[in-house]
Amino acid sequence: SYFITKIDHYMLRHVAADQRMWLDEGYKCVPVSVNVSRAHFIESDLAEQVRDIVDDAHVPHDLIEIELTESAFFDDKNALISTMAKLKEYGFAVSLDDFGSGYSSLNSLKELSLDVLKLDAEFFRNDDGGDRARIVVADAIGLAQKLTMHTVAEGVETKEQVDFLARHGCDMIQGYYFAKPMPKEEYVLRMGKHE
After folding, report:
1. pLDDT along the chain (195 residues), means of 10
2. Backbone angles phi and psi of 25, in degrees to 5
3. Which of 29, 45, 97, 103 has the fewest Cβ atoms surrounding its Cβ within 10 A?
């Protein structure tokens, strides 16, 4: 677990440094989501580690989103809830990745005060337009709205999926329909600058 937490720190430092560089160059930065491993979430000072790394880069906290996976919920629920509360207190958004891929999804929503719910790409993989899948996705979006969470649909590849998600109020859409993963140099070309 020591190695994975080092990777977490490395990624967070680099994302924060890039955000600072882009801000200085006049780009309109949007929040970037940084995954934090379940091994890291059991550390009692994780929120302070995140805060200090981001502050060292002089980046506003609202430009960094901390992303956890549902599996973190199984380790130490109380530690996870406490860490999330501190992260939110420091001004970081917290998201749950791959919602719907585990068996405790609804229980997680009941216990965790999340800002963003990311709908697992499996909902949209090999989509045959089945009514059951559409009902589940639409209701998941509705549930998130009632819990005042934003929603992100992952793995979206077709215009039909985009139209369906937009119709049901999904806030953000991620997937090959818009762009494949890209090097940061290409990402910079897509960002606008403040006029």
Report:
1. 85 97 94 89 89 98 91 76 93 89 71 90 71 88 95 93 95 93 89 73
2. -90, 0
3. 103
